[in-house]
């Protein structure tokens, strides 16, 4: 029993150390800061624009080194099979600020970003090993990224697949910051290394002053006077709100451990009562109270040692699955059972073993030698010990109830999340994603020609009913979020403009996705041309948000801070699609898929053929158009399941803790009531001799156990109410004090208590009155 609690402690200690406490893998990490924008209504630090990055580079804001990075994907070809890799583009200052060593060769230097410099690449250690057999073998080789050959000049050391502000990449190339034409877009993550004499607060103040200086210069394209450039410790930026999730796990583990300790303490009291005659003999032979008290403590140490070994072994088996279950936490891939975690688990196990045997030790200290062997408990008159056992059993159920209610709240939230309408029909729809290399597709017209031809050929496949192209896929992360201002309801001067997910789509995109038109009209084929007057469709949520009770058709907006551009007219309203996740808002704006829109796009195909058949046919079409182009395909139903997987795993994880605690509480109650039945056999026999029926005896035992559980549930309910409010941020359309879930938790707890008492009650009902009364 104790091994379960120890295993839980070891697991969460490993997670907490990796996520919250492990130092960043860079020299003097306390001098590293994340540099980004603070926007009104945006939680955390946002990205920088090119204007911001260049201004920070040129000004004296207290940094010894400063660099920025952008991320995306690229088609990698050349040696081996073409594949899509995560691409990081960084200035040389990023590597200088982080002081990352080169595992082999060198890293990006300023000369690599100069005009006319030969393209170079730095590989992750994992990619170098997979593609070339090792870091040394990769140096000097050539990799082709998006059709452009890059010389491999360096390889990062192991463990540096994710650098600085969370940019994860397999290949790094040089980033050149070109002369900006407007304040946005905000697409760069910045990292600075402070000079030794400069504090984070001082750097933050210098960046605020810099923001005030550059705002008037770009006010025409960026009117949010409240936004400012800021500096926060890099570690805090990476960890973010992960501490809340780890805190929930730690609280759940603490409750499981306490239930296990109380459980073992209950059994230790039972063992102490059984061994009272032995203690009496020892006392009669001269053993003192201290010697008698040491016996249960030594036994507790032995139990703790065994629990440490069993718990650590169990944790080693479970840890990989736990990492997958809570994969959204930052730095979790570094979780391991290192020396500090194992030492903590061992100390907790030994302390738990001693704590569980503390009550028998105290009882031995308080018992006079002449009383030790009187067997006062034979008739059930050992009231203090009986009361303590009952209190411990009630405590187990009190500790189990918050876990049970928490699991119920997360499960209820998960069920409601499953019932959310994603806004599209995933059945029969598949997506094929690709990023077209600039070397092969040098202009917007060649890009559009590829996607148009691929969609045309896809429509000719057997069973295909619709095929459309778009720059985003539901449900999950949205890459392009744009700011805009309504011409008839402009934002007050100096205020922050509205933002929304911004998609570029072909007219067939909505039919392929299964999205309904609610008002107005769809996009027309002739509008997929940059020369045409700008038009857009909006989602129902967007229309209701900005024009409640009115029609959004015909409304105009200016997007991207471009006040000199012609305004975009809303020509239609479509049903909501959950692009940013099922629990998030569904506002979205759709513009025609122009030739210069994006090199990365997604083909959505709807048909009646099996998913695997359709995907294979689409890959064949791509191979016919461009054999060197890597693609990724998936069913939209699979994307939807992936979106639900995280909340489902969280509910299952807390549910497993609750089930463990409930099982331990049930075993504790079962052991306690079994002992009570054995100790009170004579009383039970006498009751039956006086006319009590077996059913009445069984009810008496079950009622006693359920009463103990009910007393514990009353205390546990108060704890559950406190815990539920803590879980409020993790819930979706579920009240943290949902009366139905609270009642269900209590009912389940009492039902388990009744089941745990059933077997002892049945044994009590089978007692032979004559033998029970006459036995010694």
Tell me what the structure shows.
The chain has 776 residues and is α+β, with helices and mostly antiparallel strands. It has 22 helices and 24 strands. The protein has a 6-stranded mixed β-barrel. A 6-stranded mixed barrel has the order 16-17-22-19-21-20. Strands 15-23-14-24 form a 4-stranded antiparallel sheet. A hairpin with a 3-residue loop joins strand 9 and strand 10. Helix 18 runs parallel beside helix 21. It is elongated and about 105 Å long. The two termini are 33 Å apart. The model is unreliable at 375-381 (pLDDT under 50).
Can you give keywords for this protein?
elongated, 24 strands, 776 residues, six-stranded mixed β-barrel, 22 helices, alpha+beta, six-stranded mixed beta barrel
Query: Segments where pLDDT lies below 50 for 5+ residues?
Result: 375-381
Describe the sheet with the most strands.
Answer: 6 strands, mixed, barrel
How much of the residues is beta strand, in percent? 15-25%
Average pLDDT over all residues: 83
Overall form: elongated
Distance between the termini: 33 Å
Helix fraction by DSSP (H/I, runs of at least 4): 40-55%
């Amino acid at each position: 029993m104790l091994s379960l609690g120890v295993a839980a402690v070891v697991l969460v200690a490993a997670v907490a150390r990796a996520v919250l406490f492990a130092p960043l893998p860079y020299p003097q990490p306390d001098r590293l800061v994340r540099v980004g924008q603070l926007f009104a209504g945006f939680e955390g630090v946002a990205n920088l624009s090119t204007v911001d990055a260049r201004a920070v580079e040129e000004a004296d804001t207290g940094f010894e080194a400063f660099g920025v990075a952008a991320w995306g994907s690229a088609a990698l070809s050349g040696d081996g099979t073409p594949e899509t890799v995560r691409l990081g583009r960084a200035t040389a200052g990023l590597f200088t600020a982080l002081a990352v060593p080169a595992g082999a060769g060198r890293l990006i230097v300023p000369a690599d970003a100069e005009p006319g410099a030969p393209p170079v690449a730095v590989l992750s250690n994992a990619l170098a090993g997979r593609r070339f057999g090792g870091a040394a073998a990769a140096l000097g080789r050539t990799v082709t990224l998006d059709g452009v050959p890059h010389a491999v000049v360096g390889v990062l050391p192991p463990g540096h697949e994710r650098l600085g502000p969370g940019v994860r990449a397999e290949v790094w190339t040089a980033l050149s910051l070109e002369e900006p034409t407007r304040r946005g877009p905000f697409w760069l993550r910045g990292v600075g290394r402070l000079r030794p004499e400069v504090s984070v607060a001082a750097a933050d103040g210098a960046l605020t002053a810099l923001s005030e200086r550059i705002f008037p210069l770009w006010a025409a394209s960026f009117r949010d006077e409240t936004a400012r450039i800021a500096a926060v410790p890099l570690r805090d930026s990476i960890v973010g709100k992960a501490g809340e999730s780890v805190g929930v796990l730690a609280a759940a583990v603490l409750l499981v451990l306490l239930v296990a300790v109380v459980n073992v303490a209950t059994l230790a009291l039972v063992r102490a009562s059984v061994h009272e005659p032995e203690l009496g003999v020892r006392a009669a032979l001269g053993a003192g109270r201290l010697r008698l008290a040491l016996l249960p403590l030594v036994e507790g140490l032995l139990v703790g040692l065994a629990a440490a070994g069993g718990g650590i072994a169990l944790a080693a088996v479970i840890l990989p699955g736990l990492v997958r279950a809570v994969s959204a936490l930052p730095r979790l891939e570094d979780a391991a059972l290192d020396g500090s975690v194992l030492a903590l688990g061992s100390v907790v196990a030994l302390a738990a073993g001693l704590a569980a045997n503390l009550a028998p030790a105290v009882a031995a200290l308080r018992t006079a030698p002449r009383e030790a062997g009187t067997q006062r408990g034979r008739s059930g008159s050992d009231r203090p010990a009986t009361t303590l056992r009952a209190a411990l059993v009630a405590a187990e159920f009190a500790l189990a109830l918050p876990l049970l209610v928490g699991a119920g709240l997360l499960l209820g939230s998960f069920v409601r999340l499953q019932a959310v309408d994603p806004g599209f029909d995933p059945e029969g729809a598949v997506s094929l994603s690709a990023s077209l290399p600039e070397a092969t597709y040098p202009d917007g017209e060649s890009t559009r020609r590829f996607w148009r031809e691929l969609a045309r050929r896809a429509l000719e496949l057997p069973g295909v009913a619709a095929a459309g192209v778009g720059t985003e896929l539901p449900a999950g992360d949205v890459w392009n979020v744009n700011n805009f201002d309504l011409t008839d309801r402009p934002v007050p001067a100096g205020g922050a403009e509205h933002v929304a997910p911004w998609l570029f789509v072909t007219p067939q995109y909505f039919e392929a996705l299964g999205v309904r038109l609610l008002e107005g009209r769809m996009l027309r084929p002739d509008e997929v041309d940059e020369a045409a007057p700008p038009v857009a469709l909006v989602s129902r949520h967007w229309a209701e948000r900005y024009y409640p009770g009115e029609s959004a058709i015909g409304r105009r907006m200016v997007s991207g801070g471009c006040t000199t551009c012609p305004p975009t007219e809303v020509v239609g309203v479509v049903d909501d699609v959950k692009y940013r996740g099922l629990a998030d808002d569904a506002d979205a704006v759709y513009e025609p898929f122009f030739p210069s829109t994006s090199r990365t796009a997604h083909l959505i195909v709807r048909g009646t053929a099996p998913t695997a058949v359709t995907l294979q046919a689409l890959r064949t079409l791509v191979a016919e158009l461009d054999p060197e182009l890597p693609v990724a395909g998936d069913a939209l139903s699979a994307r939807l399941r992936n979106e639900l997987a995280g909340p489902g795993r969280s509910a299952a994880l807390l549910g497993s803790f609750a089930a463990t605690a409930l099982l331990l509480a049930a075993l504790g109650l079962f052991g306690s009531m079994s002992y009570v039945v054995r100790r009170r056999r004579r009383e039970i026999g006498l009751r039956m001799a006086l006319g009590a029926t077996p059913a009445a005896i069984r009810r008496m035992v079950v009622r006693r156990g359920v009463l103990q559980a009910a007393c514990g549930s009353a205390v546990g309910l108060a704890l559950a109410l406190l815990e539920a409010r803590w879980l409020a941020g993790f819930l979706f359309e579920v009240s943290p004090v949902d009366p139905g879930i609270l009642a269900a938790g209590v009912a389940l707890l009492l039902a388990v208590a009744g089941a745990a008492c059933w077997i002892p009650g049945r044994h009590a009902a089978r007692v032979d009155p004559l033998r029970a009364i006459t036995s010694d």
